[in-house]
Amino acid sequence: MKNRQRDRIIREHILPWQIIRLYCQFTTPPKNKYFLIVKIEPQPLLFMVNSRIHPYVRGRAYLNQCQARLKANHNLFLTHDSYVDCREVCRNFSLNDIVTQMETDMRRVKGFISTESQEQVIAAIKISPVLEQKYKNEIVSNLEYN
């Protein structure tokens, strides 16, 4: 398969509401992390997925309300309950970065989150007192459309 055709096919499979696993240079130490895709164009917007809520966040109600729970029994690609952190948008990856990582391993695409989880993510975004309003508007309109 030609590189351009393979690139196009991969791009077509990167969609909102998907969980993807990406290698992060910006974490300490660098490692693979799960992310929820919330917008693709013109620049990918992602939320980080964590296996637990940081104690600092858990101890502050205004931050804790920004965590959307992903139940493992409703999202079968998860081995345990996880949390989408809707406090801050991750813009560390270009679409080309994501495509490049997927070219080496398509198993990085984990799956779509459940309808129940989608509703919780939208609620967490809307209620977040720390997520910039421009991102709230952009993401919610994009997700409710998709």
Can you give a write-up of this model?
The structure is a single chain. This protein is an alpha+beta fold and 146 residues long. It has one domain (3-145). The chain has six helices and six strands. The protein has helices at 3-12, 55-58, 61-64, 95-104, 115-127, 133-145, and strands at 18-24, 31-39, 45-50, 67-70, 82-85, 109-112. The chain has a six-stranded antiparallel β-sheet. α1 packs across α4. The longest helix is centred in the last third of the chain and has 13 residues, at 115-127. It is globular and about 50 Å long. It starts with a helix and ends with a helix. 26% of the residues are buried. The model has no long low-confidence stretch (mean pLDDT 93).
Share of helix, binned: 25-40%
- Total strands: 6
* SS element count, helices: 6
**Strands ordered across the widest β-sheet:** 4-5-3-2-1-6
Range of strand content: 15-25%
Summary of the model, kept short:
The chain is an alpha+beta fold. The chain contains six helices and six strands; from the N terminus they run αβββααββαβαα.
Spell out the blueprint of helices and strands.
Blueprint: H1 3-12, E1 18-24, E2 31-39, E3 45-50, H2 55-58, H3 61-64, E4 67-70, E5 82-85, H4 95-104, E6 109-112, H5 115-127, H6 133-145
Antiparallel strand pairs: 1-2, 1-6, 2-3, 3-5, 4-5
Helix pairs in contact: 1-4
